[in-house]
Amino acid sequence: MKGKKTHALPSILVLSAVVAIWWAAVAATKSVIFPTPWQVVTGTLELARDGTLWEHIGASLFRVGAGFGLAVLVAIPLGLWMGRVHGAFLTLNPLFQILRPISPIAWIPIAILWFGVGNASPIYLIFIASVFPMIVQTTAGVHTIEKRFLRAAENFGVPRQKLFRQVVFPASLPQIIVGMRIGLGVAWLVVVAAEMIALRSGLGYMIIDSRNAGNRYDLVIAGMIIIGLIGLALDGFMRLLENMKNVRWRYVH
Amino acid sequence: MFIKTKIHVQNVHKGFGTNGSRLEVIQDLDFKVGDGEFVAIVGPSGCGKTTLMNIIAGFLAADSGGVHVDGVVRNGPNSKGIMITQQGSVFPWLTVRQNLLFGLAEDLPEREALAKEYAELVGLQGFENNYPHELSGGMLKRAEIARALVVKPEILYMDEPFSALDALMSLRMQNELLRILAKERHTVMLITHDVEEAIHLADRVLVLSPRPARIQASFDVTLPHPRRVSSPECQALRVAILKELGVTLV
């Protein structure tokens, strides 16, 4: 990780340029409705001071945590099972391959029908959105375990439970982590969309509500930027998992 | 001197593919390995050496014939005989110590002590908590040997174990192996394409024919250890074995 500072320099320059162009464009067009970067900052501070910003962030994170957490609990055991038991794979894989390309947004009417407009609907949507990529990645992780390792394990004749704990699971872990990164990314996309349609809290709701209640576009853009930053932070958090010592082998050569 | 038979490879026959394009790999192969004996198998590449080793170690079933270990038909691998291959199979997600502990029962009270003892035996003390990707090729091979020996196997199946190492490291590992085998007796079956390695290590060298593999010749190596591969006796043996393999040295 040498020269991290110099690596960051070009991207800081690009970000500064985007803000500068935005500011210049608003000033040049004398727009009354599109905010300047500074208005976005003051709008954000206003929301942060009266506490509503933290409530919205908390509501969104709670839903993502619940839906994604449930998906992890279902996807990893199911993916490991499908990876090891060929019959399970043949039976379930076609179903999951059909369900997987359906946009989570398409599930919104059904989610409302089944779970109403409370927290259960977005949690269900997040679950649906993130569970399939994680199942697929986990299964792929098991399928790509090199035969030499399975043979060695077979040679030592260890019990099944130990085979799973010390070979199948850790060998698939790098792929499982890839699945979790994809899953959490999708979950974050979905929570915002779901909150725009059916809910009264969360960052998605904050964006729609700011527009509806008096064209507060400064808060709309503040919401967008916060969503982006939190998404980045969530992915960064997931990437920390890739630094665990027992998965490093997958990334070094 | 009568030596008890450890492994009996009995009329083993193996082919791949279906009737139309069937490839006979091993035909009527029959030989015995004595208890504590070190037998090397050399043969032209592609002659089915690895297939043979997989059958003997229990990873592959023979079409007909079978393998008896201690007089019992073998159907599948077990920790009585551990396989060491060219590409190696040290688990990259476990530390050296965890790899050594892998084959030991969880409730074995002395497992930690054993892992430590065998790490020391192969010269990996101080590296127990390293991951395999932090080790050199030679150290990785040592870890693999230690992981095999720690479960006290009666047989070692070695399929080109040192071929992926450079020539110097390969020689070093051969000496290491002899040093360890002088301490602990094991029956060893070694597959190699390196005739000098076979002469250096083995009590007997079997030469396989091109596909389908049969035993073409057998050479006893009676010279005491440590052997000098450059000695006239060794070189004479080498010339004879190479001749069986179709290579004439001037």
Beta fraction of chain A: under 5%
**What fraction, in percent, of the residue positions of chain B are helical?**
25-40%
Number of extended strands of chain A: 0
- The CA-CA distance between the termini of chain B, in Å, is 38 Å
Query: Taking Cα atoms only, what radius of gyration of chain A do you get, to the nearest Å?
Result: 22 Å
Give the oligomer, counting copies of the same chain as homo and different chains as hetero: heterodimer
Most extensive protein-chain contact, per-chain counts: A-B, 23 and 23 residues
* Estimated share of beta-strand residues of chain B: 25-35%
Structure annotation, total helices of chain B = 7
Structural class of chain A: mainly alpha
Global morphology of chain B: globular
Order of helices and strands of chain A: HHHHHHHHHH
Strand order of the largest sheet of chain B: 6-7-8-3-9-10
Mean pLDDT of chain B: 91
Uncertain residue segments of chain B: none
Q: How does the overall form of chain A come out from the CA principal axes?
A: globular
